[in-house]
Amino acid sequence: LPARAGAPRSALRAETPSGMAAGRGAAALRRAWRERRAALLEPRYTPLVAACLCLAEGGVNLWVIRRVPYTEIDWRAYMQEVEGFANGTRDYTQLRGDTGPLVYPAGFVYIFLGLYHATGRGADIRLAQYLFAGLYLLNLLLVFRIYCRTSKVPPYVFFFMCCASYRIHSIFVLRLFNDPVAMAILFLAINLFLEERWSWGCLLFSLAVSVKMNILLFAPGLLFLLLQRFGLLGCIPKLCICALLQVVLGLPFLLVNPVGYLSRSFDLGRQFQFKWTVNWRFLPEEVFQNRVFHAALLLAHLAGLGLFALHRWHSSKENILTLLKDPAKRKPASPRLTIVFVLFSSNFLGVCCSRSLHYQFYVWYFHTLPYLLWCTPTSKLAHMPKVLLLGVIELCWNTYPSTVCSSLSLHICHGLILLQLWYGTAPTPVSHTPPPSRKPTAVSKKAQ
Asked: pTM here?
């Protein structure tokens, strides 16, 4: 090409075919880099990242099942407990396994009875592992659907939620606990709540409770949401759905020994063994087993629920007792908080005040941690401490047996998350200074 007088040498190079091709390539690389950053940081890319991670998790679970030895803990006991029911035993106090008597509600019996028959009376462990791998993927899809609706968590966080947790994979496919079953049903119920299908959601919520009682930690938040949307009279039918399902599921046992069934399946005063505790290892065992300590934890739990209900869940300027009124007779509430925030924070308060956390209990709140950490406004510099909190919590749950350091670290992490939830969701002060008056333009008049 002929050189132009006065043109810089870089501009001349850019006009050559090779220079233009290099420029287009550099622009494409910059665009790809920008999109990659967006895919990692912007919640609108959550469906794409979720699809990739679910595919990867299918392979990871298959690898874990085939390469990591299965460890027997409770599966054989589960099968022995439901085998008694299959053989005709209806007295709940007579259902037991190697680890002791059956202590779960009736929904557990029916679900694991299905697994009992599907796996040849529990003998086909490998098939049970594949079934739980399918449950893991279903649970992940339900969780991702919730996160897609909330659009608060940057997608890069989900890599830590999926690929970085050895303990969660172990709970699902190497231990075959009933906790993942209850949580998967619970996440299905939350998806129904997000779709405003409250009756079906309450039915599934009650089914999850019938598998394991830890789901009751979500109950205070659910009660608040029902009162908020339907008022006292409107939420009574929804509560009746929950209660009726419990009666129907427990009917075969209630007809034979109602006291035995209720005392075994809903035993809130059951003592836990100190050797398995993850969160209270730094206490002396006599304090851990002390009923006064248990009462103090219960009071702390109730106080936390009360404070969050009054100052963080309740977004209206009216008294909280107005929740008992018909929603049509109330002032409109601010849409500042969501269904997910109320339910996840309710459960988290219960976990923080739990009398004991065993290793399989990690699944009770593991998939809610990204939301709890990122539901509040996050600056660029605050991302790293939040990721660090996730890592420390994971390390605490992977320390076996638990130590004084690991249990103290877990409480510190929980305390930091609670402080963030409290101060990060504080109501925004309302300015009482009237805005300057101005005449609406023609465009604004049309928009009104």
From this structure: 0.87
